[in-house]
Amino acid sequence: MDKTAASAAQAVADIGDGASLAVGGFGLCGIPATLISALYVQGAKGLRVVSNNCGTDEHGLGVLLGAGRIARVTGSYVGENKEFARQYLNGELEVELVPQGTLAERLRAGGHGIPAFYTPAGVGTPLADGGIPWRHTADGDVAVASPAKEIRLFNERPFVLERAITCDYALVRAACGDRHGNLVFDKSARNFNPLAAMAGQITLAEVEELVEPGVLAPDDIHLPGVFVQRVVELTPRQAADKQIEKRTVRA
Fold this sequence. Notes:
Elements: H1 8-11, E1 20-23, H2 33-42, E2 47-51, H3 62-66, E3 70-75, H4 82-89, E4 94-97, H5 100-111, E5 116-119, H6 126-129, E6 133-136, E7 142-145, E8 151-154, E9 157-163, E10 167-178, E11 183-184, H7 193-199, E12 200-211, E13 230-233, H8 236-240
Helix pairs in contact: 5-7
């Protein structure tokens, strides 16, 4: 089955207002920048995003955030985006912060059909006890707070119940993919991409190199095509566009 889309615009065309999105990447490493840009042009709003972070003020999901198109974010790190902080503190954005390992496992569980799991992460903190502000009012009061979570003992040790995450769509980026949707990721760009892809009901993958089915050795495939519905081949210029959050070089 050939899953290639003619363009990123075609791939994101049916993403509607209020859709939930699992988005791969870590900071600006491995982000599906071309699909995000196409979604910005497409115009969908009120989006509910699940991602490790929300990009920076000028790149990645920060482009959608700055345009006021994201209504809710579930993530584990938001420290590089001043607009994110402004919207959250002014009641314009709902935010659920999740420990990074828990977020990864919630996405993996969603992709594998596991509805929930127990973890020791967060026991004895507001994450488990509830009361973390998810959304503020415009004057700084708490409009929506996180609920308390179920705690259960295993071998006399407490664990907190965490629910799996699934989304309407997933946007990911891979170094290489074939027309069947099998994907290979490059080193650290692998990060949250396979997990996000598994959690999406419809997964869109932008690939830096598109190959024919059979070229990728089975043992080299990081994510099988069963999890991917649409593949977008990037142009050389799009493939080379890789931003760095903080460039550090020797003096």
